[in-house]
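One example given next:
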Amino acid sequence: MQYLRPFTPPSPAQHEKLTTRLTSANMYHATSYQRLLHYLTETPTALSAGDLSAVTNIPLPTTYRALRRLADRGLVDWYTDKSAVARWYAVRSGHNKNYCTACNRPYVEHE
């Protein structure tokens, strides 16, 4: 696991934005959705589900289910890196191309 900044709960203003995003995507406001979406929104690089599980203190199976549901609603997306690991990132509004700020590599579309 790479060095990850510790999880900090969202501020009241951030919580309101998360709630609005989840509501607009017709999703429940489950704690796992909020924690994962908040951390991915605040993190500039894409992360594996294992890293997200460890840093947000959400069990790995729950992390996978939550990420798939968030992806189905268009709030997060993923790509497969060179070592065949799925890396998850938040879809940011107004950006037509997402890229890794660490290596400046665009996230490729998956099938």
Q: What stands out?
A: The chain has a mean pLDDT of 84.
